[in-house]
Amino acid sequence: MRLGAITPIDGRYREKLEECSRFFSEYALIRYRLVVEACYLRAFLAAIGKGSEAHAVEGLEKELWELPMEEAVEVKNIERRVGHDVVAVTLFLEKKLEERGHAALKPFIHFGLTSEDINNIAYGMALRDFIQTSLTPVLANLVKEITSLAETHASTPYLARTHGQPAVPTTFGSYLANYGYRLAKLTAKLKNLRPQAKLGGAVGDLSAHKTAYPQVDWVSFAEKFVEQMGLEYMPAATQVAPHERFSEILQTVAAIASVAANLCRDFWLFGALGLVEFGKPSEHRHSSTMPQKHNPLLFENAEGCFDLAADMLSYMATRLISSRLHRDLSDSVIKRFYGTALALTLLGVKNLIQALGQTHVKTDKMREEVEKTPEASAEILQLILRKHGVEDGYSLAAQAAEKGLGWLRETLSARGLDPRIIDEAAVTRYVEAGFEKAVMLVERVREIVRALNV
């Protein structure tokens, strides 16, 4: 733990989030930028007919992917001297070419580009790599955990609540499977969203390229290069790439965070209702003064992470669509906080998985709640009465919820109706329907997770 860290991402929670450093640290951004610059140099040289020179710089990208930390520090030192982060990258790359004996290629570094050509591709690659290698697998594990619980409790009777009040019976597995399915669908959507990027020079027209080397089809070059970097080409760009696809990705993560936060709140309520128990390691204390406490700490922590992440991601998604005229720099500082919001999401998912694994579901208490709440049969009761032509079936069922079924039988007999019709209002069918839905959703979720291929 880094006690001097400014944010808890790099301090208190660093151990759980160490992997995020590969994508969102300053070191990671330097590395991604250098790789993009090196890949562009090789592609550019090939495009202008300098194939042998392009061949000479092959392997530079691999070297830059493995950039030692001390060389990244060197890039930062150059930045302090020149006052520009991307220029520092190009100057460092010049040094690398000199060390390889290719100083003659220095004039072609960053040829015709603007900083945002490098930045938008670098950020796109980092976001893609984080989603594919870190976030999606952890989300898949969360979905699997929820689905496993749903399968275990597919037939566990559970009294559903609407507006906080007893509604009708279902099963706990049906409730859980709903969340599993929603999160699985959102995860699949996220995995299939490919970041967009542009390569267009100062204002997006490739005008410098076309003027310097008019014989080259630069639009095709730009599209091919962006695709080779693993991103989707965006031709309608100014100096910046439109942020709509990035926004869609961030909003999808925000939706995942919001759904997961709601699940955390629901489990908190289950604890308050006495339907689940929260576990803890034997030596852990959940209160400084009350030894008996077993608090939903991990659920609460995850909820806070998800709520903060969702707000940050939603703000970024809407704000970054805006850019004055052909470019302003207000987006730069905001983009540097991609990692904070995404790391919070990852932390929330990890804590939620751990919380679910430590939670004991009190199935006997759930079943008892259903059995001791006869008014939960009011819905099916009024429907059965109406099925048999009782026009005021809704009103009778409402009164029976207070006066009891004996009163209803007498009322029906007094009207010359067969009181046995209310025996058709069996809530056991509600539990069976919950079981059937749980089984159906569990299978569908597993199909989605298999397709994720993680």
Automatic annotation (TrEMBL):
<keyword id="KW-0456">Lyase</keyword>
<dbReference type="InterPro" id="IPR013539">
    <property type="entry name" value="PurB_C"/>
</dbReference>
<keyword id="KW-0658">Purine biosynthesis</keyword>
<dbReference type="InterPro" id="IPR024083">
    <property type="entry name" value="Fumarase/histidase_N"/>
</dbReference>
<dbReference type="InterPro" id="IPR022761">
    <property type="entry name" value="Fumarate_lyase_N"/>
</dbReference>
<dbReference type="InterPro" id="IPR000362">
    <property type="entry name" value="Fumarate_lyase_fam"/>
</dbReference>
<dbReference type="InterPro" id="IPR008948">
    <property type="entry name" value="L-Aspartase-like"/>
</dbReference>
<dbReference type="Pfam" id="PF08328">
    <property type="entry name" value="ASL_C"/>
</dbReference>
<dbReference type="GO" id="GO:0006188">
    <property type="term" value="P:IMP biosynthetic process"/>
</dbReference>
<feature type="domain" description="Fumarate lyase N-terminal">
    <location>
        <begin position="11"/>
        <end position="304"/>
    </location>
</feature>
<protein>
    <submittedName>
        <fullName>Adenylosuccinate lyase</fullName>
        <ecNumber>4.3.2.2</ecNumber>
    </submittedName>
</protein>
<comment type="pathway">
    <text>Purine metabolism; IMP biosynthesis via de novo pathway; 5-amino-1-(5-phospho-D-ribosyl)imidazole-4-carboxamide from 5-amino-1-(5-phospho-D-ribosyl)imidazole-4-carboxylate: step 2/2.</text>
</comment>
<feature type="domain" description="Adenylosuccinate lyase PurB C-terminal">
    <location>
        <begin position="323"/>
        <end position="395"/>
    </location>
</feature>
<dbReference type="InterPro" id="IPR047136">
    <property type="entry name" value="PurB_bact"/>
</dbReference>
<comment type="pathway">
    <text>Purine metabolism; AMP biosynthesis via de novo pathway; AMP from IMP: step 2/2.</text>
</comment>
<dbReference type="GO" id="GO:0004018">
    <property type="term" value="F:N6-(1,2-dicarboxyethyl)AMP AMP-lyase (fumarate-forming) activity"/>
</dbReference>
<dbReference type="Pfam" id="PF00206">
    <property type="entry name" value="Lyase_1"/>
</dbReference>
